[in-house]
Design brief:
Chain lengths: 94, 139
């Protein structure tokens, strides 16, 4: 299960798991992101290649419009996956 | 394998696969860090079978067993044409941002996480065997 909400700070908060099933279910929500979007991943527990692909596709779309995704508060094991995929050189991660 | 279960060959089965894995993690007292890594490995391999071994709708069998600080994992896909993962495009970590960059990412992650992976094909049966050392201080 993946919950997507907007925090008081305007950041998009991801909570739960971004696996292949959730990536498919939540694709429309990610399609709605515009401009520069901050994803707060403090409560994101799990991500697979399908989830990474969804983030990648969204970032690519936003980048062509002058925006992009910025990821904050990644858990260590998820940050490790970004490093293995070399996605840490594509996304701004704080 | 000590624990085995068959799953319908579709992405929607993943929730059931994860439930099966959770039962194993509880039984074997495997901690969160290791369990997340094993979940990722199983998801990537299972979804690859769903995506690339499309000639059969026979359920995929997932098997697990623990031997001390090692988890052996096996996925068996029956009545399928030969599927050689080596023919899949290698994931290019340095490629520019194009859709092709995503191709092969799942297997790239799996190979980085596991200690050993073998693919066997005989008599129309594909067997993927994985060895994963547990990283935490399990008893």
């Amino acid at each position: 299960m993946l919950d997507i909400s907007i925090g008081d700070d305007g950041n998009v908060r991801l909570r739960g798991r971004l696996d292949a099933v959730q990536a498919e279910k939540q694709a429309a929500a990610f399609d709605a992101f515009t401009g520069s979007t901050v994803l707060d991943c403090k409560e994101l527990d799990y991500i697979s290649s399908a989830g990474l692909g969804l983030l990648f596709g969204t970032h690519k779309r936003l980048s062509t419009q002058g925006g992009g995704l910025r990821l904050i508060n990644l858990k260590p094991h998820i940050r490790e996956l970004f490093a293995i995929a070399h996605f840490d050189s594509i996304f701004q991660i704080d | 394998m000590e624990r085995e279960r068959a799953f319908t060959k579709e992405i929607a089965s993943l929730d059931h696969v994860f439930n099966f894995l959770d039962e194993f993690f509880t039984l074997e007292t495997i901690d969160k860090r290791d369990s997340l890594a094993i979940q990722l490995v199983v998801e990537e391999l299972f979804t690859n079978l769903v995506k690339y071994n499309t000639t059969s709708t026979t359920p995929v069998v997932v098997g697990l067993e623990r031997e001390g600080k090692i988890v052996n994992l096996e996925l068996v896909d029956r009545d399928v044409d030969r599927f050689d993962p080596a023919t899949l495009p290698e994931f290019d970590v340095d490629a520019p941002m194009t859709p092709r960059q995503q191709s092969g990412l799942g297997l790239h992650l799996v190979r980085a996480i596991v200690d050993k992976i073998t693919f066997e094909y005989a008599e129309r049966v594909m067997r993927i065997h994985v060895v994963k050392k547990l990283e935490s201080n399990h008893a």
